[in-house]
Amino acid sequence: MNKPFLPKLKIVLGSKSPRRKELLTQLGLNVRVEAMGVEETYPEELSPEEVVLFLAAKKAEAYKSFGPNEVLITSDTIVVRKDEILGKPKDLEDAGKMLHRLSDASHNVYTAVCINAFGLIRRSVVVKTKVHFKALQQSEIDYYLKNGKPLDKAGAYGIQEWIGMVAVEKIEGSYYNVVGLPVQEVVKILEEINDSID
């Protein structure tokens, strides 16, 4: 068995996202999932960057106690087309409408991450990635709605799924940010926290 990366840290992932857990596990971190149910509402006057940061921080506030060397990671991702924030769709009809809005256009994906170490150190980061979609055929949208998993993703799509292979022409910025976790930024913060432990 491989030695864990940053073995002093015990990562608590405050998210139900299997993609975030998979990314942290692939990094070789000790990860356990402990997702709290938090209502994802926010003040309407916030900018996209402020929305994701507000929601990631709101999720972090649900956790009150930390064990030795526990590091809590909470996160939120949104898709923004023009000035419209696209969160997770309500149902398949809503998902189809979102995919039509994203078709043949560019949009931005914002992910915020809050990292709270031992209840003492709190760091946050927001990362933006620009994604360009080709013009989607109705048959492609229908196929993804029937065979993919659009309901648990901001903007109704997963770049790592079939629709990402078919729809995404190019991205500007972090691929992993679109998946749901800006890995390079997270690793940098975790390394700094790890280095602060005696």
Task: Explain the overall architecture.
Its EC number is 3.6.1.9. Its main location: cytoplasm. InterPro entries: ITPase-like_fam, Maf-like. This is dTTP/UTP pyrophosphatase. The protein has 198 residues and is an alpha/beta fold. It has one domain (10-196): Maf protein (Alpha-Beta Complex), CATH 3.90.950. The chain has helices at 18-26, 48-61, 92-102, 138-147, 162-167, 175-179, 183-196, and strands at residues 10-13, 31-33, 70-81, 84-86, 106-117, 121-133, 168-172. Strands 1, 2, 3, 4, 5, 6 and 7 form a seven-stranded mixed beta sheet that branches. A hairpin with a 3-residue loop joins β5 and β6 (121-133). The longest helix is centred in the N-terminal third of the chain and has 14 residues, at 48-61. The radius of gyration is 17 Å and the shape is globular. The mean pLDDT is 93.
DSSP helix fraction = 25-40%
Q: According to CATH, what is the class?
A: Alpha Beta
Number of helices: 7
Number of domain modules: 1
The H/E string reads: EHEHEEHEEHHEHH
- E-strand count: 7
Give start-end ranges of low-pLDDT stretches: none
What does the largest sheet look like? Answer: 7 strands, mixed
Catalytic activity: dTTP + H2O = dTMP + diphosphate + H(+); UTP + H2O = UMP + diphosphate + H(+)
Protein name: dTTP/UTP pyrophosphatase
Subcellular location: Cytoplasm
GO molecular function, one term: dTTP diphosphatase activity
